[in-house]
Design goal:
The complex is a heterodimer.
Chain A: H1 27-36, E1 41-45, H2 48-57, E2 80-84, H3 92-101, E3 107-111, H4 112-117, E4 138-140, H5 147-162, H6 187-194
Helix pairs in contact in A: 1-5, 2-5
Chain B: H1 39-47, E1 52-58, E2 61-66, H2 71-80, E3 88-95, E4 104-112, E5 117-125, E6 132-134, H3 143-154, E7 157-159, H4 191-199, H5 223-230
Parallel strand pairs in B: 2-5, 6-7
Antiparallel strand pairs in B: 1-2, 3-4, 4-5
The chains are: A alpha/beta, B alpha/beta.
Amino acid sequence: MGLSPAPRPDQRQEVTHGGEPWMATRLDFLVNWARANSLWPMPFGTACCAIEFMATAAARYDLARFGMERMSFSPRQADVLICAGRVPFKLAPVIRRIWQQMPQPKWCISMGACASSGGMFDNYAVVQGIDTIIPVDVYVPGCPPRPEGLIYGIMLLQKKVMNERSRDTTLRQEMEPDPKSQLYIPPPVIDELSEPFGNSVHQTRSGL
Amino acid sequence: MTAPTSAPFTPVIAGAATPNAPAPATPKNVPHRGGAANPSADAMRAKFADAIRRVDVVWGETTVVVDRSRLAEVVRWLHDDAGQRYDFLADVTAVEFRDTEMPIEVVWHLRSLPYRRFLRLKVQIEKGQPLSVPSVWAVFKSADWLERECYDMFGITFEGHPDLRRILMWEQYREGYPLRKDFPLRGRFSRSEQLRQALAANPEARYSMEELSIAQAYEDLPDEMRRRLSTGEKTGE
């Protein structure tokens, strides 16, 4: 598929059979098409979801069909961070650092209940959803999700990538929350709203 | 610099101390309480009469409750004595009961490979007593991380441990000891405060030089690596 510029009217020739073919398309479409079909995943597997992720990448489900056959174990060459499994607080600075090391454009898939919301681990050690640390594009529910579920999430991400527009400059801005903005809700207020009786009410295991 | 000389390695063969003993078989119909105790229990009674508070046999496994002040002595004897030879420390942990009047128990799981024996030692810390027991690191080097974990989760101080600090939670963790009964399941701080404190940690500062044993082996390192370390280059990443 060559990409010749459209010929001027005075140079226009009949394209005969066997001549150099050309096509016209939107640049956005072409770039997005290329990006969506060569998303290199950065697998961040911490638990059983990673096993399902491995199954997705293996022969039966064959993630290579989506241009994702290259697992990028270095964040510098990765496009999609796939967080598969629970993230303890001790790993929170690590996964944020990995996200910061990935070059734009980059996306994130939160695979499974634990990565999306903490899942059953509503305890002192586990981050309650990685979207409290890094932005997430697609959430895949399940405990763990089947490979079909992950592939569906990947196809949703591809659809999202296909709909991006290069004129939209806000897409690639990495926003830090601005405390001066009127939309900004400080974390203690969020705590106050979501847990009005405190984090640990009725949580003492001794029943004291 | 000379390489430290050490005794030649001699593998421990399980059951080697009792060559004529029958081959081990899976026991059947083990009673919940009672049954034959580990012969080490009687030997301990004979040797440390007043230090042995109680001997229980639960599901065929022998539990010996030892006086806290003489624990180090008992463990040293169990390890060194030719008739015991407990050479493997499998676990160090603690138990806190729901009834707050009951003592907190610190548990050691010992295994004697030559005699094919299992022994559970316990020390009871009565209510109001300081949560500290002697460390067995001098006898079993594997106690290092096990005791650190027990300290991290229960707040029990092991006297004589060379490097007693947190191992599972990060070192700046300030919410307490998670496996204690008075610890709320979700922790003491709010979620946003927990996240703020966790994200404030530097992920590259997790490994200290001591942790990588570089400090002790510094003289043995190649010159080039020593030069890089002396300029403060991070390791462990």
